[in-house]
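Hey,
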Amino acid sequence: MKPGILTGFRVLDLSRVLAGPWACQILADLGAEVIKVERPGEGDGSRVFGPPFLQSTDGRELNQTAIYLAANRNKKSIAIDIAKKEGQELIRKLAARCDVLVENYKVGDLARYGLDYDAIKAVNPGIVYCSITGFGQTGPYRNRLGYDTVFQAMSGLMESTGPAIGAPGGGPTKAGPSISDLFGGLYADVAILSALLNRQRNGGDGGEYIDLSLLDCSVAAMTSIAMQYMMTGNVPERLGNGGNGGVPADVFECQGGSIYMISGNDQQYYRMCEALKRPDLAQDERYRLQRGRIARRHEIVATFRDVLRPLPIRDVLDALEKAGVPAAPIYNQKEVFEDPHIRERGMQVEIPHPDAGKLSLVANPIRFREHPITEYTAPPHIGEHTEDILSTQLGLDKAAIEGLIAAGVVAA
């Protein structure tokens, strides 16, 4: 088995639920050793976010939910009570042997336990310490609590998503997945890897503290929509399923199903009209240029709805593909993983699970040629690796480990 591109790096994951665990799972997929610290007995809060719960081969309901399974593969779990002084000392000793620490506790919480950046830096000056919070370490909202939908709401993401203003059922709508958490996890990884690269350039010296706010990440993710406001001072119109660039772009009903179709430029528009046997629409002066189509967005979308409604979906998709026009069927999750291209790309993997027998996962989408991501291990049970980590990482013998278990400091 070839080593991963991050093999040799060790990450202490003190995060819970999604943004932090998502960031750490990506690092684990890339080969880093990730030690997940969980609360004895309860574990990561996402373990109760069901149903559904994973079923064992003998029909038992396991404390592994879809959200937990989606963000915690390739990790080792150690259960430590950080409210106990002995538990805090174990965290500091583990952190001294790690390259990265990721946490998403409330602002100031870990300082009460002597586990804040300054305390960890004292035992490991080269640590890259990433704090993921809802609102960041500074600002008037820093002590507020929040979940993904709060940041979707406050960043403008929710207001820009959903049916267009005036459309039936119109109104702000959350994105399907917890997109603010996922943005946050990805930005965290960019920051962590940048800090590790900088440390390497400095000969292994010099750690870094990362203050990462999920609200900040969500605001940044608004990209061109935010820029429209900054350029004009006007609040951008919610477009529903319309594209942010090309027109026409929307969901269109055909015979047998719906498709998403978009014309990104004038040449694509002309080919679209030819493929749909409506060359007159390409020659119409109102629609011939992109600027005119954008100005008449609703009008032209309504026209193409009438064009597409009587046509068989397969004929439409085939004609548009042949013409080089971007279009796609609208899939549910079953259809996603049945698609031959997605199957060929290996986006679903099946791995052994100690209790469920086997487990299907969504694969990591990164494709390295020299360091391919091919190995996946099942998300761990609470404290599954407690004894192994205490023995191999901290050198504790069996009697010492049993003493910590008896005192409730750790669980195995």
